[in-house]
Amino acid sequence: MIVDLNAVQSDPFSEKSFDVCICGAGFAGITMALNLPKNLKVLLLEGGGFKASAESQSVYEGVSKGQTHIAVGASRFRYFGGTSGVWGGWCRPLDADDFEPKSYVPYSGWPIRKDDLDPYLDKAAAMLDLPDGSWNASQSYFEEQIHGTADFKSGTFKFSPPTRFGQKYRQEIEDRSNIYCFLNANVNDLLLTEDLSRLDHVKVRDYNGRVFEVPTQKFVLATGGLENPRILLNSNKQIPAGIGNQNGLVGKFFTEHPHAKLAEILLEDRAKAHVGQYPFGGSFKSRLKSLVCDSEWALRSINYVRDGGVDCLVPQRHFFSPTKAFMGREEILNFSLRMRLRSPGHGQPTDGSLNIESEAAPDPQNKVTLGYDWDKLGMRRIEVTYRLSEIDMYTMRRAAVRFGEVFADLGLGRIRIEDWLHPDSTKHAARGVSHHMCTTRMAESPANGVVDANQKVFGTDNLYIAGSSVWSTAGYANPTLAIIQMTLRLADHIALELKG
């Protein structure tokens, strides 16, 4: 069942008890609700409605500080389905190397391994409607040439349609007799038992100003990489620093995926012959674009009218990531290079572009903290401080230079590296892509993180956190697929605990 809390006349929680309460109905929250055993009574609380509203979105407003801007409010969506309603569909599992510590990267390494998530890959892929096939198969001439060199390998992404969880799973949640979903139900405080060892109940507020208390056996915070720490930090009536923050780590290590254009590409003639294998497609719009990009007259005309050229990059991307040997030798982070090429006859001075989406090093100076403004729910808003570190910048430079060397050695062409990558440059062109991670990071002990290997908050026996805020490090893969994998694993763990 799904109910709008704003519309109820009396307290809907007073006569009910729940086995699991989930805060947030996005990727993680909906996955958790649907994959807990049907004999458990599950409460799913969503702070927004079925559609975005100014009232709900205003709760997400905050301040971005530091060298790199973070769109604190605009990068998140507060309604049923969450950010699944706007995501682009990019999916890839984390690499095995992402879980291993790097001797040259402080705070690196996870308390779990890729093997712990692999059993959940197929189910996660099915939930996201991903196509079948290998994650590492060479897809084209360019992958075949570069994959298997000493320093680079192909790293295939798969693309969801993209699946909108709020649309795909709404009816199933409506129909499930064990799931009670309330919209416009804002969790704005977590209250512990007298001995502070476990969560006793949560306070839930609607937009009419009414406050309800909800007791629960297990509680899962699944509100995203910025909101998860905000709720913990705001729950400070019993523990002044906030729940889970006994070592001051809630909100620390905020991480994004730096994304940037690295270079323009110039192909050798023998390589150009392979670009035409990937047409724009069969639709009218695609065929029209193909004709435009094949016509020098059309390109000149559009350039004159628009005062800007036509992008004749074909949709097909070619993905490359570093080998473990390359990362260790150069002491760099993991990354994904995305090469796109222009269709034959494009009439432009270069044949394509090379972009990067990179891992960023864990840095406790990058953080989410409480600001001095308050939202309408009585919670302090957040301030996000983020900057790129030296190793982040060095990784992007080395990725560009070494790829250019390999590209030339293979006789594929040359690359023209962007000016901002010059070592003497004082600026950078990297931007975030709204992947908010690592703010309640997983660790072997509370000295280094907020949650344990089972995503339970250290020191609070029945409070768990779902989503990419529990990443120990970020890797380069878009986080959605791993969020689903880890949430499926967490659902199994909670089910076992309640059964035992």
What does this 3D model show about the protein?
The chain is built from 14 helices and 20 strands. It has helices spanning 27-35, 54-57, 114-117, 121-127, 141-146, 165-168, 170-175, 227-234, 269-272, 284-294, 296-306, 324-330, 390-409, 480-499, and strands at residues 2-4, 20-23, 42-45, 63-65, 90-91, 152-154, 158-159, 179-183, 186-192, 199-205, 211-215, 218-221, 259-267, 313-322, 335-342, 352-358, 367-374, 380-385, 413-417, 463-465. The strands form 5 sheets. Strands 1-8-3-2-12-20 form a 6-stranded parallel beta sheet. It has a 6-stranded antiparallel beta sheet with strand order 6-14-15-16-13-19. Helix 1 (27-35) packs parallel to helix 14 (480-499) and helix 4 (121-127) crosses helix 14 (480-499). The two termini are 28 Å apart.
Average of pLDDT: 92
Helical fraction: 10-25%
Q: N- to C-terminal separation?
A: 28 Å
How large is the count of helical segments? 14
β-strand number: 20
Rg measurement, Å = 24 Å
The side-by-side strand order for the widest beta sheet comes to 1-8-3-2-12-20
Shape: globular
Query: Major beta sheet, specifics?
Result: 6 strands, parallel
Structural class: alpha/beta
Proportion of residues in β-strands: 15-25%
Spans of at least 5 consecutive residues whose pLDDT stays below 50 are none
